[in-house]
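Researcher: Structure prediction, please.
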Amino acid sequence: MKRVDVAVIGAGITGILTARELSTRDPGRQIVVLDSADLAGGASRRSAGLHFPRGSTPRARAFAAYSHDYYRRLLADHPSWPLFPLDVSVVAHESRARALSEKYLEQARLVRGSTPPPLVGLPDGTAVWDGTGCHYADVPAVTALLARQLRGQVEIREGVEVVGLTSDADGCTLVLGTGVTLHADRIVLAPGPWLHAAPWRDLVAPLGARVKKIVALHVEQRPTDDDPVVVFDDEDAFLLPMVRRGHWLFSYTCQEWDVDPDTLSTSLTGAHVAEARELLHRYAPGLRAAAASGRVFCDAYSPDGAPLVETLDHERRIVFAGASSGSGYRFAPATAAAVADLLSR
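Model: Predicted structure follows.
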């Protein structure tokens, strides 16, 4: 039976950054990353990759601040990597100035604007705040680049499903779909929306996390390098200029809960298009007709919207990391650091 110090289940951005953080803190630690599909093949593959420095709770703001500094350093160290800085325009009801100043970090440098952002109008009673400190990333590409750095220090096994998981005072045992049994001193579960996989379903259930569908439309109009991301804060939606892809992405809050990532259709429905277009029409009616395609997937959401990093068993050997509420990329560095802190106790 192969033995390792830590097994990370899930090779999305959170799992890979967790392995990176653990390896950086203790280079001698034996770490294996396991994923039933390919690297960044789940929610990370479909992520918009938007980072903006904000949080609705103290924990979310602390995580966002940590990740903001982490990505700033990552881009400074690797300027050719696909992370693209952006300014931001926040559209909200004019009465929410104080709430926005509490929600957005000082790194956003929000100030009241005088004109609406490009392509967007301001309905009566709304205002705009302009800021900076955002970026978007090609998340699968960034995950692959991080994994390339890790190979040789960390073992990465793609296409290997975990079909059994047990723990006791002596450690954890993983039964793999390849017929191999793996013993790990600690396990980090970073399963993205696969909360209900049989080996850990009962362990994860007490966390109260749920899986929600995520829908975004592709707006077939070409953005420029100077266009900001426009955040419609009252509706928790955004319009992202994906310059490298040549279109905008409009993400809105779809309220379809308790979906299954294994059976979920990744195709848009007429209801999705109509719902998103209705909101888009409120602020940017000129873009409505150009929004006819998009992407559909799902993610795990915590009860309060902040990521969960929790032990799941009495021996404190199994740690859950995730339920980042549609912001897995944005919170991933801080989630990884929180896991490493917990495992060091």
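Model: The helical segments are 13-25, 58-77, 97-103, 139-150, 201-204, 270-283, 328-343.
Researcher: Thanks, that helps.
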